[in-house]
Predict the structure.
Amino acid sequence: MRKESSIDEEPATTGAPTAEASASTPNQTRPAARYTAMTVWVLLVVVWSATIGIPNDALTVLFTCWLGTIAWSIEAPWRQHLGFLRDWSIPALLLTVYFFSRGWIDEFDITIHWQMPIDVDRWMFGGTTPTETLQHAWCGDPCRLDQPTRWFEVVFTTVYATHFLAGLIIAVVLWLRNRAEWLVWMRRYIGLNFAGLLIYMSYPMAPPWLASQEGLFGPVTRLTSRGWGDLGVQRANVILNGVGNPVAAMPSLHTATAVLIALYGIWRWKSPWRWMLLIYPALMCVALVYYAEHYVIDLIVGALLAGLVMWVAAWWERRQARRQAARADVESDELVGDDSLRKA
């Protein structure tokens, strides 16, 4: 039976992390200094979010989190702070490649798939799509973007927006606490994004709101922006801006990332409350369908993709661990043999 481990523990199958990666960041900051620096950082983030927008693209989120790590260890030497740039340079480059590659797909002469997800959702739900059902029940018939915002739409938009923040925030926290565990998470997070990119490239598909605009079903309305409208809150792409792909609906990476976070937490935590993490992808799925961002079939494929990435990463880590153990046995046998020769 597998023994569950906490994220505070050194994982047994991380794929040969270096000694530096395995070491936790030493506590070199006095509590008063940390409290003051973190307060200043939080205030700056609040002001930035209120005036410009909540950081939304990967590089802006990482830069904001880097400032947070500096505030957390404000009295640490600068070499430690610059270690963030060293460790995150390759992940940041990979995320940037993913971001721009995702946006370039629809610039080529490609065949966009429109009808398949509509037919599948109708087959699963008795002749209609869940997006139509939810919008008629919760928004109105017809559902219009200029209608008053409902309280649950604020919740849905907040959950939707966490997609751009949660995975990277988890990564930064792990980077501060346990570099080996950071590698475990990043292997899955980066792998999921690029697996999704490969499917986008091979099967570009239109989302419900775009298919509705073309008159293929509905009508349904894209409601994603309405949840925060009355609050005056918005998301902002500051560094990576102006790149998007409206036909990257299959699979739903919003769902895949939420499921990945839940599966990872259930796998690594000991608390019986860890199963509550499943509420997160459940809320994400409802928000995506209600807002006409994705069909249910997109959500199913996204969840399956997250499970596949978890399995492949675990298989690779077990394989690496076996190789390391075999190599250590060989080296041990060689040392014993050399010692026997010397005694002879």
